[in-house]
Amino acid sequence: MTAPRFSSSLDHDLTDPLLTADPVEAARHYLTESAFTAGPVGRVGLELELHLIDLHHPGRRPQWDQVQRLVAALPVMPSGSAITVEPGGQLELSTPPEPDVAAAVRSLAADRSVLATALSEAGYGGAPLGTDLARRPQRINPAPRYRAMEEHFSALGCAPAASHMMTSTAALQVNLDAGPAHGWAQRLDLAHLLGPVMISLSSTSPYVGGATSGWHSMRQAAWLGLDPARTKRFSSSDPDGAWASYALAAPVMAVHDGATTTGVTERVSFEDWLSGLGPVTREPRLEDLDFHISTLFPPVRPRGYLELRYLDALPDQWWPAVAGVVATLMDDPTAADLAADACEPVRDVWQTAARDGLGDRALRRAALTCLEIAAAHGPPSLRAPVEELADLTASGHSLSDVIRRRVESDGPIRVLQEESHA
User: What is the CB neighbour count within 10 angstroms for residue 249?
Assistant: First the structure.
């Protein structure tokens, strides 16, 4: 839920631009101008979340004071990745933006190795899987932001899905340059078009909290169970304007005043607040709009660059391949055109991808074609792991299938423990 250090297109003015005679128009202008930063493509930032496991007590979550002591004692990451802690105690490694995906993979791999060693020496492990396979949802991070999220989601009737999303899921996030302005609509459309196929390929979440629904990706099921006003896709036509409309229409989750963050328990859009309709009597400021943007979770979110948020966290054997596939299909012009043709037959089948994954024949065909394209056009250093993933897919299996069989054979705690040692 944190962003890597790409630069935004705007710096805040000394005078708050929302404190004007027409705050709605001022907010719309700010959102439109800050959504995408024009420039060349190529840079890649990666974020990998890991479920923190106490190796002596793998079936229970560490206490917050234990997590704080652990994180405070971690060494500086050699590639400069930031380490943050999610609501359920998940650790997130966020690399700086690198010149290309091969460099980003090297940076994340180096920092992942240092982190794994430091965790092991302290008696902990980090399991990069889409869901916590064994432990029940539990928020341990007491940050006011997360308490406010719980209050908001509970009031809107999606507390169970929100609890799973916040405390029991982990992602691999790929961050890419927005590219030239004339190509924003096509680039955003391609990022959405790849979504179902990449969900099918990347899922490692057939169980959560020791139970299964039978879905291929229970991480995606959690996201599908949330308020769609804050998680749905926004239109790739006129993408910067569409993003502004999306953000203004989304309900305010929380109000942040100094050290106090209060959850909003009624459905009030940010535009309503700008128009004087609450959730508090004071006028919203630019910092409120920035905070509001950070609580919006579409599968592709613009932050000046593009955050692709729909991938499960994956074991170290596989996340380099998935990162390489996504970046190649997005950034190589030939690969992008070929991938768009391959994925068009499965456009918008997000729920099918989450429920059936590669068991759906059309998704499997598209996935195999995308892997072949990525192997041919991607960086040579990532060709072997991409081909290995292609071989698994061609065999009729998926990563989710592999995890499911291991859980059914050895139990969810054992698998979680094994992945935290890997």
Answer: 14
Contact 203, 170 (CB under 8 A): no
Long-range contacts of 62-69 (CB under 8 A, 24+ apart): 62/89, 62/124, 62/140, 63/140, 64/89, 64/140, 64/141, 64/142, 67/140, 67/141
Strands 254-257 and 82-85: unpaired
Other beta carbons within 10 angstroms of residue 27's beta carbon come to 25
- The letter for the amino acid at 272 is D
- The type of residue at 210 is G
Distances (CA, A) of 302 to 9, 27, 85, 86, 294: 11, 16, 22, 21, 11
- Cβ burial of 334 (10 Å; 0-12, 13-18, 19+) is exposed
| pTM of the predicted protein model | 0.95
Q: Which of 259, 258, 257, 247 is nearest to 280 (CA)?
A: 257
Q: Which residues contact 249 (CB under 8 A, 6 or more apart)?
A: 229, 269, 270, 271
Which of 59-68, 171-180, 273-282 is predicted least confidently? 273-282
Distance in angstroms (rounded) separating the CA atoms of residues 61 and 51 = 9
Quick: pLDDT tens for 149-166.
Answer: 999 999 999 999 999 999
Which H or E run includes 260? Answer: strand 260-263
What does the pLDDT look like over 170-209, one tens digit per residue?
A: 999 999 999 999 999 999 999 999 999 999 999 999 999 9
Contact between 319 and 327 under an 8 Å Cβ cutoff? The reply is: no
Q: How far is CA 107 from CA 5, 48, 78, 81, in A?
A: 14, 12, 8, 8
- Whose CA is closest to 128, among 111, 141, 143, 144? 111
pLDDT in tens, 84-115: 999 999 999 999 999 999 999 999 999 999 99
